Each structure stands twice: as structure tokens, then as C-alpha cells.
């Protein structure tokens, strides 16, 4: 089953604690009424890790996400999704800095390949849209 070690108030996880879910995910941080809240971390059983802001159990605000393959994202989160401004760095050192929507490159941004080539402009749902101000170096 699941295990919680930490502060307990009014018959629920409230305060600082560590929660291990049935699936092996581990949450560390502050809990309110059984949900992680404010600053905290989640490490999944398969090596994914999020460290950052939470609101009612969901990633919300600013945070860092690391994938087991070496990819990293640092930036804004809304309702458990990468939404807002952020930086995504792939394991091969390709890098995107700009806007995201629901986890996709969406809006203004700059993509830089590990070989030095750069692409700047607009993305719509992960697809690059060439605009008059776009450039490829």
C-alpha cells in the first residue's frame, strides 16, 4: 500500500511529509488535506523527477522536470503541464527557449541545435511556422 511519514492534522496528511504512493512514486514537501502544496518534489518509480511549485496536488508555478533519458525542462507550469515561458534542453544538448502550451512548443521561441544552428520564430502546437522575422543561422 501507500505510506505517509510526516505531520498529521484533522485525520489527514497536513504539514511537512513524505508520501510513497502504491505505484512507487515519492512525494516530498508540504501537504494540505492530503495534497502536496507549495514547494515540493515528485520522483516517479521510473526515474522522472519534478521539483518546484504545487497547488492542490498539481504542478503549478515554476519548476524543473527531469526525464530519465537526460532531457530537462525549467520554467512555468499550469495544471500539471508545461505552459508559459521555459527552457527545454534535450539530452543531445539541443535547446528551445520560449513559450509552451500544454507541454508543446507554442508561441515565440528560439531553438538552437547542438551543432550551432539556430531557428527563431513562432511555433503552433509543436510545429515551426516560418514568419517574416524568423531566421535560420
From TrEMBL:
Superkingdom as given in the UniProt entry: Eukaryota
Keyword vocabulary terms for this entry: Repeat
Organism field: Rotaria magnacalcarata
Name used for this protein in its record: Phosphatidylinositol-4-phosphate 5-kinase
Pfam family of the protein (one): MORN
InterPro entries per record: MORN
Signal peptide: none
Any coiled-coil regions, as ranges: none
Repeat listed as a keyword: yes
Amino acid at each position: 500500500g501507500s505510506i505517509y511519514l510526516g505531520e498529521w492534522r484533522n485525520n489527514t496528511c497536513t504539514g511537512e511529509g513524505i508520501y510513497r504512493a502504491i505505484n512507487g512514486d515519492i512525494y516530498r514537501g508540504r501537504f494540505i488535506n492530503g495534497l502536496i502544496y507549495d514547494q515540493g518534489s515528485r520522483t516517479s518509480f521510473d526515474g522522472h523527477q519534478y521539483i518546484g511549485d504545487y497547488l492542490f496536488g498539481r504542478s503549478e508555478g515554476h519548476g524543473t522536470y527531469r526525464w530519465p533519458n537526460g532531457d530537462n525542462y525549467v520554467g512555468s507550469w499550469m495544471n500539471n503541464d508545461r505552459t508559459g515561458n521555459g527552457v527545454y534542453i534535450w539530452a543531445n544538448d539541443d535547446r528551445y527557449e520560449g513559450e509552451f502550451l500544454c507541454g508543446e512548443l507554442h508561441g515565440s521561441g528560439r531553438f538552437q541545435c547542438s551543432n550551432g544552428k539556430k531557428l527563431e520564430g513562432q511555433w503552433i502546437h509543436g510545429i515551426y511556422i516560418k514568419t517574416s522575422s524568423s531566421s535560420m543561422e
